[in-house]
């Protein structure tokens, strides 16, 4: 008999009052017993609706069945066939709008905790199994991959498995993209990311860090060097600003700068040579995952009062529900229906922010009700730090240095959606560089799709 | 890992290194820079490419020891390795085939000025230079500049070399004496570049400056290096670091550059770390 409980087996979490004083992971994961109990909730549906909700097609009922039987290594092998970053995805996938959204159990009660189970399996495997990967025999064909984020990693891993000689070029000193520089340690521990990435690079992927494609080497030069195809997974790393007065004052960060200092450069450790400054009263502008991460990070660095300033209402917050919930538990204040007009400074440093109240009008093209300012409702809030988290767009560096690479009006690389091929022959692209800021699993799906097309093209040569 | 193939002391605070970095050496041009991390816990610090050897795959940097990371760098010797070294970053300087150009280098700013003037000299432009420093000891690259410049002038705060005073005192004199320049290129502390522009702007002598805001990634990802130029926000690491001096908001630059001073100066942190490194 399956476990017919309407709710997921609870997962332990650090107490909110404790966790705001450290950078350790908020959620603690399942024990074997808990995982097996949750696995019992899966009905093993023949038509597998959940799998259609997963952009990389993880064989969900199959791996859950293995968990139910306590065969965790086998469960890992099943997942890894389709997804080589399960510890990452189990933590950060927006499951509620993907695999779990279409889970049959979700009709009456909570869906099966697919993400939690995936995470359990991955963590167990990393902890208990000494993985010795032997790279497959080379087929002599060479592919270059630009960037080291989830899209590129997935593309590189899939090609390496098929015997391609893959070289990965990453601009930073670490692989992982946003997984390393953006998503905070307390949501996604970096040691774990490093370890999971290794299961891809150990397939024989040659890694060249500290190479900015477009500057250190161009795409054309990659072909001259003998690569037969190139995949571009350069992400959406360009921070947007609001273009309001006072944005360049000291004390105003983009979320990217703030999070990069703290995550990639480990500024949460006061011994790190990379500094970060946080004031007492922090306003984070925006309502997405990035804003939640910045706010919760600011709290952990010791800010007394952290506010999310967002121009729509709570229902429209684009962040994952779980993140909003965690943020609320951590005393983050949601100052909604408010839009900043200018940032005020004294001696070059932020002292306040002027905002205007908003109300929701008629729905716009996106279907969401359009926020409109309420005339005469301007007000000034005391803040000494402002973090701008209103979105990122693709970094223009590559397109500015690559003539034939077409982009749309938002700067996203144009691809054939079937094949992921760009307007340059044998150059493929995927992930945030193509879609604009999206999700880890969509980036991975795109990398996978591109690997398939590259394989089809190159194996027919 | 990037091998230090040569290290040389220039004065008590300034050192030169030649680093094996083939990706950078192959493509770099005057005006561009690199970002390095001394060790695997290091911060990312930008330094200008002073010279390069495409055949040998090496890049020359000159740095002034001003704080923790440059101190750590200085602890390394020939044969040691720098953990990370990425480049070339930024836009190459647009060098026009003028008749006559005046370079102004203040302190270690003379280092990034050198490759630009050298290139101009190779293009057949007649080049003069003013080098400034606190005292005679801090005048750098004198022989190198002499080899490519028609006239070389000095300014030191204490008068131990050349004019006693600032580079702008020499600049004013040169202009009063009737020297005409098609362009001035000024690289040094922000306060010096600001002072130079205060002289050249009223006379409408085009003036290029090289900005050095605080950077992290150097690829346009963090926005930390933003500067206001002509009323618009620019990212110095991708749009610069060279800008039209007439348009730069120097006061904002100076303020932003000092934002982390307190943390950087946290003496105990610095000493602790340097001690640990020496052991
Ligand atoms: C703070 C934050 C929180 C997020 N939280 C979530 C979450 O909870 N769940 C979720 O699913 N998604 C989340 N996302 C979104 C998710 O991280 C991204 O959608 C995903 O990482 C995109 O993957 P990618 O491979 O396309 O690009 P990226 O992860 O951006 O990786 C691109 C890589 O390419 C490198 N690169 C760029 N240009 C060059 C070049 N010219 N040469 C060489 N290398 C280059 C970059 O340095 C980077 O390492 C979050 C994003 C942020 C910023
Ligand atoms: C494009 C560019 C080119 C540069 N070229 C040279 C050069 O050729 N030679 C040279 O000696 N210096 C150069 N600098 C300055 C050099 O990067 C700083 O001196 C160095 O980062 C100081 O680090 P520190 O830890 O030793 O000192 P700290 O005590 O940490 O800092 C001292 C001062 O250096 C500046 N600084 C600190 N961190 C950074 C950073 N991450 N990015 C930029 N500035 C910072 C700040 O103004 C700070 O107040 C350049 C800077 C830029 C932006
Ligand atoms: S990878 Fe993400 S979407 Fe796919 S099954 Fe796992 S948690 Fe769900
Ligand atoms: S839809 Fe839900 S219950 Fe059905 S197989 Fe998938 S996870 Fe199990
Ligand atoms: S250093 Fe990060 S954008 Fe310039
Ligand atoms: Mg420093």
UniProtKB/TrEMBL annotation, chain A:
Q: Which organism is it from?
A: Vallitalea pronyensis
Spell out the SUPFAM superfamilies in the cross-references: alpha-helical ferredoxin, Nucleotide-binding domain
Q: What InterPro entries does the database record attribute to this sequence?
A: DPD_II, FAD/NAD-bd_sf, FAD/NAD-binding_dom, Helical_ferredxn, SudA-like
A GO term for molecular function:
glutamate synthase (NADPH) activity
Q: What is the lineage of its organism?
A: Bacteria, Bacillati, Bacillota, Clostridia, Lachnospirales
Q: What class of enzyme is it?
A: oxidoreductase
EC numbers = 1.4.1.13
Domain (FAD/NAD(P)-binding) ranges? 142-447
Q: Is the keyword Oxidoreductase in the record?
A: yes
Q: Which residue range or ranges hold the Dihydroprymidine dehydrogenase domain?
A: 19-127
Q: Which NCBIfam families match?
A: gltA
Q: Please give the name of this protein.
A: NADPH-dependent glutamate synthase
Gene3D superfamilies in alphabetical order: Alpha-helical ferredoxin, FAD/NAD(P)-binding domain
> For this UniProt entry, which segments traverse the membrane?
none
Kindly state which keywords UniProt assigns to this record, in alphabetical order: Oxidoreductase
TrEMBL record, chain B:
* Residues that bind [2Fe-2S] cluster: 222, 225, 237
**GO BP, one annotated term:** pyrimidine nucleotide biosynthetic process
Per UniProt, the cofactor note for this protein states: Binds 1 [2Fe-2S] cluster per subunit.
Q: Does the keyword Iron apply?
A: yes
Q: RNA-binding as a keyword? A: no
Keywords assigned: 2Fe-2S, FAD, Flavoprotein, Iron, Iron-sulfur, Metal-binding
Domain named FAD-binding FR-type is located at 1-95
Q: List, alphabetically, the PROSITE patterns matched.
A: FAD_FR
**Residues annotated as binding FAD:** 62-64
Q: Which domain of life is it from?
A: Bacteria
GO molecular function annotation: 2 iron, 2 sulfur cluster binding; flavin adenine dinucleotide binding; metal ion binding; oxidoreductase activity
Give the protein's cofactors.
[2Fe-2S] cluster; FAD
Which NCBIfam families does UniProt cross-reference here? PRK06222.1
Q: What is this protein called?
A: Sulfide/dihydroorotate dehydrogenase-like FAD/NAD-binding protein
